Please model this.
Amino acid sequence: MSVVASFEIQYLQYLDPEGKLVREDLPDFAKDLKQLVELYKLMSFVRVFDTKSIALQRTGKLGTYASCLGMEAAHVAIGSAMHKDDVFAPMYREYGAQFQRGVKPREVLMYWGGDERGNAFADQPHDFAWSVPIATQCLHAAGAALAFKIRKEPRVAVTVCGDGGSSKGDFYGAINVAGAMNLPLVTVIVNNQWAISVPRRMQTGAKTLAQKGIAAGLPSIQVDGNDIIAMRAALDRALKRAREGGGGSLIEAVTYRLSDHTTADDARRYRPDAEVKDAWLREPLKRLKAYLVAQKAWSDAQEETWKADCGQRVDVEINAYLESKAQPVEAMFDYTYAEVPADLAAQRAQAMEGSH
Amino acid sequence: MPQITLIEGVTQALAYEMKHDPSVVVLGEDVGVNGGVFRATVGLQEKFGADRVIDTPLDETTIAGLTVGLAAQGMKPVAEAQFEGFIYPMMEHIACHAARMRTRTRGRLSCPAVFRAPWGGGIRAPEHHSEANEHLFTNIPGLRVVLPSSPGRAYGLLLAAIRDPDPVIFYEPKRIYRQYKEEVPDDGEALPLDVCFVLRDGSDVTLVTWGAQVKETLEAADALAKDGISAEVIDVATLKPLDFDTIHESVRKTGRCVIVHEAPRTAGFGAEIAARLAEHAMYDLLAPVERVSGYDTHIPLFRLEMKYLPSVDKIVAAAKRALAAS
Model:
C-alpha cells in the first residue's frame, strides 16, 4: 500500500484565555491597538445588547430570543473582516457580525418580537435574512458566491452554521459545491459545543469539524473561536483567497454557548454546571480586555464609561422597538407575491373586513 | 415558421430568454454537455457557455439551495429536477426560502426562480419517475404552479415563468413531450400566467384538467360529441394562483363539471376546485361534481400504470354520469 493523499488540520490561536500572546507573528491589524480596542468595544456592545434582550424576553416584551453569549469574538470577527458589498448568510444569532453590516438592534428585536420588518434591514440591502432551518443558509451563500463568479464580481459570500448544522447535508452540499466550482465562499462553523441539548461528540465521529472541509477540497482550519485576533486573521486570509479567485475555505471556530439555546430552553436540564463554569474561564471578552489593559490601551474606567454608553444606546433601540406598532392585517398579503394575485386579493379583502 | 414539440417549446423558451436576458442561468444534473436526459436543454451550453448552463454536483438539495441564493442575488435561475419524483429534497428550500423570501424580508429580497421538472406517468419509466405531486406545491403560499399542455403553451408559459418576479414550479408533462408538433413562432411572446385556457367550447358539461390529461380529455370531448354531448374543455395551466372565474363561468353555463387529474384523489388539486364549486357554484350545478383521478395509491410500476391513470373511457363515463344525474 502507498499513501495517495495525506491531510492535517492546523489550529490557530494568538491569545490564550489569560490574554497572553502565544505567538509573536501578530497580523498587522492586531499590531494596531486602536483596532483591537474597536473590536473589544463591538464585542462588549453585543454583550450588553444580549443581556438586555434576554431581560426583555423575561419580562414578556419579546418572543423567543437566541442569545449569542460567549460567541461574540467569532461573530464580531466575521463582521469586521467582510467588505460592505460582500454577502452574509447568517443563522440566527450572529448579531455581532450583523451590527457592523448595517442591521440595527431594533431590527433584531423586531424579528424576535414577531414582526417580519425585522428582516427588512433598512441599511443592509443584500444580506440574507435569519435562517432558522438549520444550515440551509450555507447553500444560499453558495448560490450568492456562484452569482458573483458568473458576473465576475470581486465579492465574497460568508456563511455561518453551528456544530449541529455541520451534520446537515446542506452544509456538506455547500462546501462541496464551493470546492467543485471554486466559489468565493467562506463557511464558518461556530462550534459552540451544544446543538440545543446534544453535545458536539454526538454529532460526528470526526476528531475536528474543520476536517469536513478536507472532503470538499477546501483549505480548512480550526481556530480558537474565543480569540478574536485568531478569528480575524483566519477570516482575512480566507476572504482574500476567495476574492482573488482562490475559492472557498472552511473555518471551525471553537467556542462555547454560555447561554441557553434560546430563551425557550433551560440548559440546566442537560448540561453540567461545572462545564459552564469552566467555559467562562475561556470566554472571549475577558482575555482581550486583559491583553488591552496590559498594553495600556484600555482601563476599568474606560470600560465603565463604554458600558454605560452601550446601555443607553441599546435602550434607545429597545424603546424604538417597543414603540413600533404591529403591521396592518393586509401586510400578510402584500409581500406574498410582487403583486397580489386576483385570487389572493379576494382573501385580502375578507381579512380586512374580518368577515371570513 | 418552425413546427415544434412540447419539449422543443421548453428548449426554445430557455434559449430565447438566455439570449435576451444575461441574468438567466440554467442549472441541474446533466443539463450541460448532455443537454438534459429528455433533451430539454440541448444545445444551450454550446450557445451560452458552461458559466450559464451549469452541471451541478448530483444533489437536488444543492441545486435548490444554489437556486435560492442565485435568485436572491440578482440572477434568474432556471433549475431542473431531473424528474418530479426527485424534487422532494428540494422542498425545504422551495417552501422555507424561495416561497417566503419576499414576505419574510418585506420585499427587500425576492426569489425570481423557476423550478422545472418533467412530470407525470405513462412513459414506462422506473420507480419514482412517474409521480404527479403538483398538489404538494399548491398549498405553499408565494409559489406559482404551472403545467403547460401544448408546445405553444410550454413556450409562452415558460417565458412568463422566467420573467415572473416570484418563484414558479414549472411541471412539464413528459408523456406528451413529443406527442405532436405545432407552429410556435420564436418571438419571445409570453402567455399570461394565472389564467385558465378554454380549449374547446361546449354547453352540456365542463371538463377541467391540466398537464398530460389534456390529451385524454380532448379525446373524451370528441367521443362525447359523437353521442351528441357538447363538452367544454378547460386547461387550468396555472394551478396556483387559480383562475376560478373561468371555471365558474363555464359551470354556470353547463351545470356539470368533471375534474380530471392523474395525482391521487384525496387532497389532490381537484379537491380545491370541487370545494370552490361547492362554495360558489352550488346553485349553478345540476349534478354532483365528478372527479376522475389517480387512486389513493402509489402509481404502480409500468405494467399497471395505464390502469391507474385517467383514461378517455373513464372521463366519458364520468361525464355521462353527470348528465344522467338531472
